[in-house]
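Run log, item B.
One chain of 135 residues. Sequence copied directly from the ordering sheet:
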Amino acid sequence: MYQQMIFVNLPVNDLDASKKFFTEIGYTINPQFSDEKAASVVISDTIVAMLLTKPFYATFTKKEIADARITSEVLVCLSAESRQQVDELVDKAIAAGGTASGETQDHGFMYGRAFDDLDGHTWEVIWMDPAAVQG
């Protein structure tokens, strides 16, 4: 059965530093779709973050490239299997040079935290109680 994928394309200032950041928090780089202008970060079987140098990113759009440190252009939200996994991923991101973003959200049935990567892109990590999701 076909599973739709998502490729999140993000402009980065320093491709090598960004690759190091994402591997330090537990993701892998797919060398088949990576070169000196882009890195393919495999988040899951259906989610890939494409990190593009700003000049390369600019070839895909006529719009001004947002500086994610001062302008919010997207909030990327990833699910987690547990509260512990939320904390582990966000703590790894902070240890790798990212920064905490916003406040911890704890609604009992839903728990989340967020971090900004090296370029200021915000990544939310959320756990939801499966019983609450089922209704």
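Observations after the first pass:
- The helical segments are 15-24, 54-57, 83-95, 130-134.
- The chain is about 25% helix and 35% strand.
Flagged for discussion on Thursday.
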